[in-house]
Amino acid sequence: MHTQIRALLWGSLVLLMLPLALWCTGLAWTPTWISGAAPWLYGVTESAGTYGAAVTSMLWSAVLLWRWPRSRRAALVWLVGVALMLALGQAVKTVIKHQVEAPRPHVQWLSAQQGLGTDPYYRLQRSERQHWLAQHNPALPAWLLAHWQHETDTAFPSGHSVFASSWALLAWVMLWPRRRYAALALITVWAVTAMGSRVVLGMHSAPDLAGATVLSALLVAAAVWWWQRLPARW
């Protein structure tokens, strides 16, 4: 277990490098961040979102369980445990969002252009927020506006980043001790790219990513603790 916790800590530090670097720059999001790479980044974002999470989970589950020296029963128990961990992460994320109520970067920017704070926007109902975004869309691509309208809640922590960092930290815990470095690098790069895409698309800032990573680290640590207490014959 000590090896797994050490791997978890190293993985957390790697993932936290992105929000730390963003925080050090002190830059605030503007539409100029949207570039030719944005549609590609949107695809990566969706791989950690509502529509792509299931496919991504199946893919990474297959990678992590490949050549795993445990029984099929153990693999099934592991899959159930991971599903519960991911669901719990999203539930906790939602509770925190309602408590913190941090505005999304694109809402801050759009509100500033109108000479307003973000409070009036977040007092609106969901349908009214969607209409407000359509009215004040600064000539951005239709797919980005649709993405903004789909997620009109608050920012902290990032749900996409909770999902992505959870898979990355699971990979560190399971693959680092087995020296499967190529697969570990693949999942880590995907997670960092997914987290970075949330910033480029104006959905999140550095604290949202850092909070998601810390939450995921706690969830994975709990999962490791739970797994270690299962019967050895599994």
UniProtKB/TrEMBL annotation:
EC numbers for this chain: 3.6.1.27
Protein name as catalogued: undecaprenyl-diphosphate phosphatase
Keywords: Membrane, Transmembrane, Transmembrane helix
Gene3D superfamilies cross-referenced by the UniProt entry: Phosphatidic acid phosphatase type 2/haloperoxidase
Species for this entry: Isoalcanivorax beigongshangi
Domain Phosphatidic acid phosphatase type 2/haloperoxidase, residue spans: 80-224
Catalytic activity field: di-trans,octa-cis-undecaprenyl diphosphate + H2O = di-trans,octa-cis-undecaprenyl phosphate + phosphate + H(+)
Catalytic EC class: hydrolase
Keyword NADP: no
Residues that span the membrane, as ranges: 7-29, 49-68, 75-96, 155-175, 182-203, 209-227
